Amino acid sequence: MKKCLIPVLCLLFMSACGGTATKEIDLNTDTAENADFSSADLARITDGMMNSISANGFYQMYAAEHAGQKPVMLLAKSLLNNTDEHINTRLILEKIRTRMINEGQAQFVDDQAFDMALDQLNLQASDLYDNAKAAKIGKFVGAKYVLRGSISNIRKRDGRENINFVNVTMDIFEVETLLIKWTDEVEFKRASTKGALR
């Protein structure tokens, strides 16, 4: 019996010391591994918010009032994270911004490029650049609206079961009046159970 066990142990040891196995995961069919926030939730939130804002009629109303122009927006620095997890909430906003731009629904002021643009304008205003070819100061476009939101969760652990309820609320408010022009939420609840041997 001991002689049979030795080759099995050797095989297990060798497989543990072997290289890392890698596989590509299709983002369209990706599922959550446990109750925590996952990459699978990004598509659910983005699709839910995009469908909601399109159904709301905000774009059509703005285009009708402004001769077919697209609204100019600013992205909040991040979603307010009220969860018990570390989540890159800026990524959620950026995915929605990307969809809005690519689908031709809105224009965005690049909030993160502001300091770089100011540095470049100051440099071009020096004697190092030809004034006729330098970028002109005072051409920045002001955002009319801000896209922002928050993400919260309620977690319950019961023995080996981990239940996580997640709520993502977003809105677009007008800078001039502070009126909310659109708001909605996406919610989901997920449970995962740890194995008895863990």
What does this structure look like?
The protein has 198 residues and is of the alpha/beta class. Helix content is 34%, strand content 26%. 15% of the residues are buried. A hairpin with a 5-residue loop joins strand 5 and strand 6 (180-193). The protein has helices at 2-17, 39-56, 58-65, 89-102, 114-124; strands at 72-75, 80-82, 107-109, 145-158, 161-174, 180-193. The protein has a domain at 37-125 and 139-150 and 169-184: Rossmann fold (3-Layer(aba) Sandwich), CATH 3.40.50. Strands 1, 2, 3, 4, 5 and 6 form a six-stranded mixed beta sheet that branches.
Which descriptors apply to this entry?
Rossmann fold; 198 residues; 6 strands; alpha/beta
Beta strands, count: 6
First and last CA, distance = 29 Å
Q: Main sheet? A: 6 strands, mixed
Per DSSP, the total helix count is 5
Oligomer: single chain
Amount of beta strand: 25-35%
- Categorize the overall geometry: extended
Proportion in helices: 25-40%
Highest CATH level, the class of the domain at 37-125 and 139-150 and 169-184: Alpha Beta
What low-confidence regions span 5 or more consecutive residues with pLDDT below 50? none
CATH architecture of the domain at 37-125 and 139-150 and 169-184: 3-Layer(aba) Sandwich
Average predicted local confidence, pLDDT? 83
Work out the radius of gyration: 25 Å
Order of helices and strands: HHHEEHEHEEE
Structural class: alpha/beta
CATH T-level topology of the domain at 37-125 and 139-150 and 169-184: Rossmann fold
